[in-house]
Design goal:
heterodimer, A: about 350 residues, alpha+beta, 5-stranded antiparallel β-sheet, 4-stranded antiparallel β-sheet, 12 strands, B: about 190 residues, 5-stranded mixed β-sheet, 5 helices, about 15% strand, globular
Chain lengths: ~350, ~190
């Protein structure tokens, strides 16, 4: 690991002041990084993928709002420094929105969930093995060097949101439940506080896979804000993977369903394991809305969700697996008591 | 809180870290001052920022019970309790743990000569072979029970899935967690 200086920020202002002094660099090769739980950052630093020369620890920021779960009706505000396990254990959230709880419980391991913060979790970087191993060409790590996954071992890679430069999967689970609910992210920067939709936070790879988010240099996520409708009690996070636990998704889905009898009043769908960014399946939602629910309709929605899929040699199975995962989740959610 | 280092502590490789004494830094360049309580002793260190909590425990505090299995947060052998919650000590820089309470396998037994119920259960249920994952399994198991996540076999397997055992002692680990759970709930 390359040497770095280590400092602790005790307030948001201190954190922002520290980052303001940093020279602008593309985020993936940023010389300056915040660190919270460390479960992603320490890993990438040890691999030599992330090489910051300056780290600012934000765990001791004393503004309470970053450490709180605030439960309103319908709005829930989650501080960015709240741990994954704290939200996982929150019974009220589990009652109001099971897919939020499950998207946390099925992620990583309990040890990691105790350490990892919500802000860090949604910013997690890809597990693409070529990205993680610095001897391979990688357009995300080293723009213009090429993508080793395109013609390589790409079983885990994405089929949605891909480009000719990069097919790395966004592996996070929590963000799928969040994006299904059209969550927002509150951001502190030197120009003040701003709020953007989570759907606007992550960038698809396009021509610049090294630019992963629309955060400006030195900005700090302070909270995640979501409106949880009453009918979100009928929701689920289904995760399909090689093992029953402690593995990333091959395909996953966060589904919330608002049924009036047999008719779909509203539906929200997030797809994990198959896309380069957190993925809201709007075409699938549109297929379902105002229709009478049936398995056939669920398959029609799944077809719509994956109609633009671009499979490679080893991940083509994800098209069918992704569809069936969505259908199964819809069928199971339909059986839930409202 | 301060006192003699327990007999079980090995001689530290890096400087002397007796409670409240400054260790001798062996790293070139600046170090970060870090204070923490480890197993009810106060420690003060001055370390290279790259030092993981795991390396601090093993090489600076001389507590080699916590093991380095993968150093990438994937095996759980390095599991300790941080402020009472189970964490992976390899995935945290030592400097991030300033002011925290760390419990390692060495700090689990009550000091009256008896093993912690989880340690005893691992012996009774033959829940280890090579023993390398074992300190991490035990720490994780203690936390699993305290979290209330040891209600049944399926839940134990799910909530212990962050600890890998290449000797595949899993069935006996599950049995040990259940035995310890029953003991711990009596207390």
């Amino acid at each position: 690991m390359l040497p770095f200086t280590f400092e602790r920020a005790h307030t948001v202002s201190e954190a922002l002041a520290a980052s303001a002094a940093a020279a602008p660099t593309p985020p993936t090769s940023a010389a300056f990084q915040f660190i919270a739980g460390g479960t992603n950052m320490v890993d990438y630093m040890r691999l030599g993928v992330a090489r910051p020369s300056r780290i600012v620890d934000i765990n001791q920021i004393d503004e309470r709002s970053l450490h709180l779960i605030e439960l309103g009706e319908p709005q829930i505000r989650l501080g960015a420094l709240v741990s994954m396990s704290e939200v996982e254990d929150n019974a009220e959230i589990g009652r109001r929105c099971p897919m939020l709880t499950e998207s946390l419980r099925l992620a990583a391991s309990r040890q990691i969930r105790n350490m990892a913060t919500l802000g860090g979790n949604i910013l997690q970087r890809t597990r693409c093995e070529y990205f993680r191993e610095i001897s391979w060409p990688c357009n995300k790590r080293n723009p213009g060097s090429g993508c080793s996954a395109m013609e390589g071992a790409n079983r885990q890679h994405a089929i949605l949101g891909v480009s000719d430069a990069c097919i790395a999967t966004y592996h996070g689970d929590f963000a799928q439940a969040l994006i299904a609910l059209d969550a927002s992210v509150e951001i502190a920067g030197k120009a003040g506080t701003r709020s953007i939709r989570l759907a606007e936070l992550h960038r698809q790879p396009g021509n610049s896979p090294d630019v992963e988010t629309n955060l400006h240099q030195g900005e700090l996520i302070t909270a995640i804000i979501l409106d949880v409708p009453e009918w979100a009690t009928r929701s689920k996070y289904l995760k399909v993977r090689d093992r029953e636990s402690y593995a990333f998704a091959l395909a996953s889905t966060a589904v919330a369903l608002d049924l009036a009898g047999d008719r779909v009043r509203d539906v929200r769908i997030g797809l994990g394991g198959v896309a380069t960014v957190p993925w809201r399946a709007l075409a699938a939602e549109d297929t379902l809305k105002d229709q009478v629910f049936s398995e056939a309709l669920a398959y029609k929605a799944a077809d719509a969700a994956f109609s633009d899929a671009k499979p490679r040699q080893h991940n083509a199975f994800k098209v069918e697996l992704g569809k069936r995962t969505l259908v199964r989740a819809l069928m199971e959610v339909r059986e839930m008591k409202a | 809180m301060t006192g003699t280092i327990s007999v079980a502590t090995a001689i530290p490789i890096v400087g002397a870290s007796a409670p409240n004494n400054q260790p001798t830094p062996l790293t070139r360049g600046g170090g970060v001052p870090v204070s923490m309580h480890i197993n009810d002793h106060s420690y003060q260190f001055n370390v290279d920022p790259r030092t993981s909590l795991l390396d601090l425990l093993r090489d600076h505090a001389g507590l080699t019970g916590t093991k380095k299995g993968c150093d990438h947060g994937q095996c759980g052998a390095c599991t300790v309790l941080t402020n009472g919650k189970r964490t992976l000590s390899c995935m945290s820089f030592a400097a991030m743990n300033d002011g925290r309470e760390i419990t390692t396998i060495e700090g689990l037994a009550s000091g009256d000569g008896n093993l912690h119920p989880m340690q005893q259960a691992f012996i009774d249920q033959d829940a280890f072979q090579c023993g390398y994952c074992t300190p991490g399994q035990i720490m994780s198991g203690v936390a699993c029970v305290r979290e209330g996540h040891a209600q049944n076999d399926a839940e134990i397997r799910d909530y212990m899935s962050g600890n890998i055992c290449r000797c595949a002692a899993y069935p006996n680990i599950v049995a040990a967690v259940k035995q310890a759970r029953d003991e711990m709930e009596k207390a």
